[in-house]
Amino acid sequence: EKKPSWKGLGTNKLSEEIYSCYGDNVGLICIGPAGEMRMCAAGISNNDINKIPSRYAARGGLGAVMGSKGLKAIVIDDTGCKGVPVKDPDAFTKAAKELVRALKEHEVTNIGLRALGTADLIEYIDAIGALPTRNFREGQFEAASKVTGAYMAQVVEQRKGKGKMGHPCSPGCIIQCSNIYPDKDGEIICSPIEYESIWALGPNLGIGDLDIIARLNAACNDIGLDTIETGGTLGVLMDAGLLEFGDGKGAMELLSEVEKGSPIGRIVGMGVEGAGKAYGVNRVPVVKGQGIPAYDPRGIKGLGVTYATSTMGADHTAGHTGHQEVFKIGGDYDPLTVEGKGALSYDRQVKTAFIDSTGLCAFVTLSTQDLPYGDRAIIDLINAKYGCNWTDEDVIKYGKEILRIEREFNKLAGLTKSHDRLPEFMLEEPLPPHNHVFDVPGVELEKANSSHD
């Protein structure tokens, strides 16, 4: 029997074909046309519990890696598979219950994220003047109130249908910060639209309409593009004069060019750095080839240190100091000061490296940083799973070792400490409304990167 050809399919059509061939109970990991064309902004899609291709391993061009191997999809059928072995099941269950208790006790992980999703961040980051607007020209967006989590929740409630706040991204999810965003008829536009995507395809482009943002997000999901990198790229192209800021229709047309693989589509798929070079733009928000996410480092300076020194380039998830600088979770730092930001960033990077290695959602730390018994529960889970006796010190040692190995890899790839810097315009151009530049001195940056060696 001749096998079907799935080459060139978007993730939505591909999903239909896969489920038709293998049944509805399989898991699906795949790439869209952007990955097949080995574009730098291509990501890897993971279907959610509703079989929607939406949960992306997006940053760093991972979709291009699959595409380079001629690999379109990975289909997983766990029927008849044995469960994951656990050395001490009773201790594991006890520790899991303690972690769940911490998640349900903390207001952010039990109420805030479930009710308003990550989009709730728009209101807070805009208020402190750190929401990058129109390709990092300003720190506040005049239409921010139309793209917040609270506004989204109102729209979902009004339109009803298939819309939903408090949607779990995966089976067993406790926090349930995801969402399903509907159109005026209650049909799905996109599931989900998250803070980073809303920013990248909204305020960063001067667009203040959630419906337009959701459709741009859905198009990225189908084509197989990282929304952060793509939004950053479109911002650079708008700065270059290819489009006007606020032109949602033009942005959608450019995304369709990506799918076609046209010359301009390939420039969009090159990502922030590539597009900046192609058009000779000076305001290019990128570190180590990766576009800067939805927090302007001139307004949250500890996070700027993470952007500069992270082994993976600009990435908030590598060590999110905004927990301490903005929300005062696990500490209290002024986001606009420079003192102590190197040590803060390094501490967050070490602990994040450990949490990432466990496979836990990064959001668990929003509660465990305030509730020590939740932190202890994570270590107890590891000990029960593997039959070991880890301590807090072992966790720190493990995180440091991960960073050491990553930095050694970067050295072999030709990266040095000279690459641990933010774009020059952020050092010179004040960010309204507080008119700060990124002025964290080199000695603070060294505190965050020299310890990796």
Task: Describe this structure as you would to a colleague.
This protein is an alpha+beta fold and 453 residues long. The chain is 47% helix and 7% strand. The protein has 21 helices and nine strands. The protein has helices at 11-22, 33-36, 62-68, 89-105, 107-116, 121-127, 149-159, 195-201, 210-223, 227-239, 248-260, 263-269, 271-279, 301-309, 322-325, 341-358, 365-368, 372-386, 392-412, 424-428, 442-449; strands at 27-30, 44-47, 53-57, 73-76, 164-167, 178-182, 188-190, 286-287, 290-291. The strands form three sheets. A four-stranded antiparallel sheet has the order 3-2-1-4. The longest helix has 21 residues, at 392-412. The protein is globular, with a radius of gyration of 21 Å.
Give a summary of the structure in a few sentences.
A four-stranded antiparallel sheet has the order 3-2-1-4. A three-stranded antiparallel sheet has the order 5-6-7. A two-stranded antiparallel ribbon has the order 8-9. Strand 2 and strand 3 form a beta hairpin. The protein is globular, with a radius of gyration of 21 Å.
Class by helix and strand content?
alpha+beta
What letter string, H or E per element, gives the SSE order? HEHEEHEHHHHEEEHHHHHHEEHHHHHHHH
Read across the widest sheet, the strand sequence of neighbours is 3-2-1-4
The number of distinct helices, counting runs of at least 4 residues, comes to 21
Question: Largest sheet, described in full?
Answer: 4 strands, antiparallel
Which bin fits the share of residues in helices? 40-55%
Backbone CA Rg? 21 Å
| Overall average residue pLDDT | 95
